[in-house]
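Hello again, I could really use a second opinion on something today. I owe you a coffee for this, so here goes:
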Amino acid sequence: MLLTQVMSYYFLTKHIGLPEIIEMRFLMLCTATVFVGAGGYIINDYLDIKLDLINKPNKVIVGQVISRRWTMFWHLLFNAIALALGLFIGTKVSVAIFIAAILLWVYSVSLKRRFLVGNLLVSALSAFVIIINFVFDTSLQLELVVAYTLFAFGLTLLREIIKDTEDMRGDGKFNCKTIPIILGVRKTKTLLFYMTIAFTASVFIYTTFYGSSFAFEQNFARGGFIFYMLLFVVFPLIAMLYFIYTADTTLDFKRLSSFTKLIMILGLFSMIFWRL
């Protein structure tokens, strides 16, 4: 989250330099964003102890490493700090942080177990890190903010459905209504396959058409951006189609989830070309 926030603030705005990155208000914004995200992860783990004991028993912390009471304390403290920092920064930022904190709570309490709604919400919240930068400083190039927001949303949506397929065993025992439980693994794989095709086509069209027409500061940056996106984002997305088609076991979907995260990180680093 921190890497995404700093990179998007620096590379999606031509006038931002090191002094603005280390400026106190932006450091407070980064801290608030990380804390509200941490608070969301904590409440999610708190409410999903029984599910996690089945899906990932070796990674359960709540109730084993940290008591449930202390877990809730840290959740409330992190959100309180995030809101306090947001209020100090400005009204718009504080409202955005408050909304994010509430939505993370609602997601963990209820929407996570519902068909598609939870996937859409967490995908939208994944783009929150980039969006709040624009709320903080509207001088960011809006078209690039929209592009990377949609990229984060689309790829996170794919990953969330993959993770639900990976966690079917535990989710099914607690009456969750996730996509793979309702549709079954075969239909979910078909859905993922066609969603990935649509997403890949969108990235390819954006790269080749918008990337070739954007006013880069240096001519070599245009070619570099197109080459980078095709090699490190579009090609892996095409490879992902094969991995989806052949996925069968829980381990396959776990690897697919990690591969999706890698593509997101590689896509994030394409921001560098906008400032070359």
In short: The mean pLDDT is 89.
